[in-house]
Amino acid sequence: MKNINIKNDAGLLALAIRLVIGWTYFSAFWRRTILVDKLDPELAGYIGEKFNHFLPNALGIKPIIQYLVENPEILWLNMVIFTIIEGIVGLFIMFGLFTRIMSIGVFGLALGILLGSGWIGTTCLDEWQIGVLGLATGFLLFLTASGKYSLDHYLMKNNYTITKKKWFSWIASGVLPIKDKAFPKVVLIGSFVIFGLTLMTNQVFHGGLWGPLHNKSVKPKLEISEGKIGNNNLSFDIFRTEGVDVYGSWVIGIELLDEQKNIVLEYTQEDLASLNKESISNYYIAKVKSGKHSLVVPLGAKAKINLDNLKLKNLKSGKYTLKIVDISGVYWLHEVLKN
């Protein structure tokens, strides 16, 4: 093994980054399997529900997320595989084993976090920062690989047969087999691509470059659709697309108003807290359900609500307005026709 000037050993200089980014991903595996069981769909804190929170404003990968949350068994399998990959990537990065191929894993995981949840964060754009920094550190570790304190270094120092293979430096450590003239261009292009992704997602998710800043994690927002009035039934879909991911939207009132804004049907806070399960048909893993004091709508949850009430039987044909009221005082309106 060729001697390297320690002060110029880029892999050694990146040791702190390697350890921290490695633990960032390995700790996800550690939390979900050792500290708390977050892979059991029947337990509170199931990672699949967190994944469901990403759905409303994911960028580019929204159809994939929607397919998974609509198919619980496939979602569970993917959450298990995802967790195992995070554990392997994080552990190998910390130990400096096959560093370059693991750095590609870091890049891929970070890209998934960025596109899926980069819009979430109530104070400091949390998920977006994790995502873009993961992209940058993944690229950096691919360029530097591991230095003196790594298993890659140990293998090379002791001249193991595997280190003689041409592909070893591509997947582990050592000098990248890229021509000296081309190397600065690789660094420049890669850096600007990552910087471009950073600026683009900052603007799309948060308006960070121009226009008014916005944070979709601060206030709850419900989308109402498919409103219908039958003989004795009012049905509609609700989909919570914004707000804090760790709290639900607490719906304390549902009203149906006629064209003169008179209330023709009303469900109070107590009515919604005791709403039977048959009235709620959930589409995804995150579930709309009756809570102790209200109807709880988690981030990313979508459900069809069916309200059977005799007061609807003799309603005249015409336009009606459905009003849904959150505990914060915010409300949403949706026009419903009665034929």
Structure, described:
With 339 residues, this protein is α+β, with helices and mostly antiparallel strands. It folds into two domains: 6-206, no CATH class; 221-338, Immunoglobulin-like, CATH 2.60.40.1930. Helix content is 42%, strand content 19%. Strands 3, 4, 6, 7, 9 and 10 form a six-stranded antiparallel sheet that branches. It is elongated and about 85 Å long. The model has no long low-confidence stretch (mean pLDDT 94).
List keywords for this structure.
elongated; four-stranded antiparallel β-sheet; single chain; 339 residues; 11 helices; alpha+beta; Immunoglobulin-like; 2 domains
Give the secondary structure arrangement, pairings included.
Elements: H1 10-13, H2 15-35, H3 47-53, H4 62-70, H5 72-95, H6 99-117, H7 126-144, H8 151-157, H9 168-171, H10 183-206, E1 221-229, E2 233-242, E3 249-257, E4 263-267, H11 269-273, E5 280-282, E6 289-290, E7 295-297, E8 302-308, E9 318-326, E10 331-338
Antiparallel strand pairs: 1-2, 2-8, 3-4, 3-7, 3-9, 5-8, 6-7, 9-10
Task: Give the gist of this structure.
42% of the residues lie in helices and 19% in strands.
**What is the overall pLDDT average?**
94
The H/E string reads HHHHHHHHHHEEEEHEEEEEE
Radius of gyration: 26 Å
Structural class: alpha+beta
Number of E strands: 10
Sheet of most strands: 6 strands, antiparallel
Please state roughly what percent of the residues sit in beta strands, choosing from under 5%, 5-15%, 15-25%, 25-35%, 35-45% or over 45%. 15-25%
User: Percent of residues in helical segments?
Assistant: 40-55%
Low-confidence stretches: none
What is the straight-line distance between the termini?
A: 83 Å
Shape: elongated
Task: Please work out how many helical segments DSSP would assign.
Answer: 11
- Overall tally of structural domains: 2
